[in-house]
Design a protein that fits this description.
This protein is an alpha/beta fold. The chain is built from 13 helices and four strands. The two termini are about 35 Å apart.
Length: about 270
């Protein structure tokens, strides 16, 4: 997967217009535009998907609103800030590119098409996915936990590239994607176990899935104890037949396997955290 980070005028302006106002000045600009060019403002709202699908060739049906915003000094300042933020995101992405490629190749095991990340003002506090092949990212990088934004981006990308499941099976899908990104991928990046991170309501299910998850990762049975100690999950290894075929599956196939065999997987009593 090739990932491109860009600052695009149309995408940036659209988000400034239709997300929460990031300043008093922007609010006033939006309000004046709405009062003066209401029809054009409404037309602009419809541009979102078209921009995301083909930003290089996008031409608005009415560029009145865009042209007015482009001339504002406030917009010039916001765009410069977005360009600086783009560089920060790219540096973080490039720094962890090796582990991200490992996530996609060895954990997801499913081809993901090229991705465009539209970088907007981080003051918007948004990570949005208008279409499956692109993201809109405008969220401050946490100084204490800078990898949080990286995990959120990858969670969005992986979710968008896994098929849809029935409502009753969503917990399995969500738990396994968390195991892949928030747990195993994060563990590889930080060099410390992150297996207790994620949605609290999914933790019990992830404990049940954990033995099969190790098999999926290709961990040998004699190494299970080492991983159990690392991740603070414990189970009785002798009660589990080693499923050799799991390490040949991709993430979607593994989700399907777990859903098909959920009665067998969850029949084991809940494991205790060490």
């Amino acid at each position: 997967m090739n990932t491109k980070f860009i600052v695009n005028d149309y995408a940036l302006i659209w988000n400034l217009l239709f997300q929460a106002s990031i300043s008093e000045n922007i609010y006033k600009i939006k309000q004046k535009l709405w009062d003066t060019y209401r029809n054009e403002y409404n037309l602009t709202f419809k541009d979102k998907i078209a921009i995301m699908k083909d930003y290089k060739n996008f031409i608005p049906s009415d560029d009145t609103i865009y042209n007015i915003v482009l001339e504002k000094k406030d917009y010039e300042k916001i765009k410069k800030q977005a360009e600086k933020y783009r560089k920060e995101l790219m540096e973080l992405w490039d720094k962890n590119n090796k582990e991200t490629n490992y996530l996609l190749k060895n954990i997801i095991r499913k081809k993901i098409s090229d991705y465009t990340i539209f970088v907007v003002s981080k003051e918007l506090n948004v990570v949005d996915q208008p279409i499956s092949s692109s993201l809109v990212v405008g969220k401050d990088i946490d100084k204490k936990d800078p990898l949080n934004i990286l995990l959120e981006i990858n969670m969005k990308i992986i979710n968008a590239n896994i098929k849809k499941y029935k409502e009753k099976d969503l917990d399995f899908k969500n738990a396994i994607i968390e195991l892949a990104v928030l747990n195993e991928y994060a563990t590889r990046i930080t060099k410390r176990s992150c297996y207790l991170a994620g949605t609290p309501s999914l933790l019990a299910l992830k404990r049940h899935l954990y033995p099969y998850w190790l098999m999926y990762l290709g961990i040998k049975k004699e190494e299970f104890n080492t991983y159990m100690m690392r991740d603070k999950f414990v189970f009785e290894t002798e009660k589990y037949a080693y499923e050799k075929e799991l390490k040949k599956m991709n993430l979607e196939e593994f989700i399907d396997f777990c859903i098909r065999n959920q009665k067998y997987i969850i029949r084991i009593p809940k494991e205790e955290i060490i």
